[in-house]
Amino acid sequence: MSGHAGEVEAVRRFRERTGLPGLIDVHTHFMPERVLRKVWAYFDAAGPLIGREWPISYRQEEDERVALLRAFGVRAYTSMLYPHKPGMAEWLNGWAAGFAARTPDCLRTATLFPEDGVEAYVREAVEGGAGEGSAGVGGARIFKSHLQVGAYDPNDERLDRVWGLLAEAAVPVVMHCGSGPAPGKYTGPEPVGRLLARHPRLRLIVAHLGMPEYVDFLDLAERYAEVRLDTTMADFSESLAPFPGEARARLADLGDRILLGTDFPNIPYPYVHQLEVLERLGLGDAWLRAVCYENGARLFGIADAQGEGPGDPDRGV
Description:
Layout: H1 5-18, E1 23-25, H2 33-44, H3 62-72, E2 74-78, H4 89-102, E3 106-107, E4 109-111, H5 118-127, E5 142-146, H6 147-150, H7 157-169, E6 173-176, H8 189-198, E7 204-206, H9 214-223, E8 228-230, H10 248-253, E9 258-259, H11 271-280, H12 285-300
Parallel strand pairs: 1-2, 2-3, 4-5, 5-6, 6-7, 7-8, 8-9
Helix pairs in contact: 1-11, 4-5, 5-7
């Protein structure tokens, strides 16, 4: 932890000057070690989807990464994982249930894939089953869907009852559905628009603000009251996929449905960078408090009071 003392202090100062009791990060990655190592190897090789050097900032062991998030004051976070072929999702869900059981700061996370049996294992995750050592942790609080990596259509008929189940249970789904960093066969606003037309109550969280189709996904958020967007990797000062300046006012208008996301630990910069990027938008401290804490606290029913226990901002500092 000592090697990150400066970063911890920088995040603490951000929380202090904006009046934040803590942070809620809806887009962090924890996954089985061998899977994570393959993800890191892909980034190390500057895989075809990224096409650039991408040094992983937080390559520590799992327990050290957990301690670092606590030191940053992150009260709740996720274990985003995603399958790229049939037969992976149920196994990943079991691992994530166990991770949430031993890591109370983490919102139990699950995933899915269009395959035979998907409705059964999604229902089991929602109802709190599956996962070694997961007794008492409760059902999945959030799901991850990655249309780019999984290369599947969200309108696949095998998923239709699953989306209905998740909408009925009011379990949010973080979906990588924008066409950045490279388009996929089923990315973009059109497939998602068709999905929402059938399931308008689905609590969909559009990852990366829908990069690069920001405006189209903002349109969907304005049309559907349960659509939210996370800020993951949305660095508006970079040229890779610049956020249109004229759309910033819409971020303010939708301030109750924008959520902090960072992609920790798979980021090529310090954790505080994402916070400073949001601060530089100039939308005010009240907006920052909503995005970085209050919206997530409301969505997941997290108590606002400070005190002892998992997620306390000063734990581990």
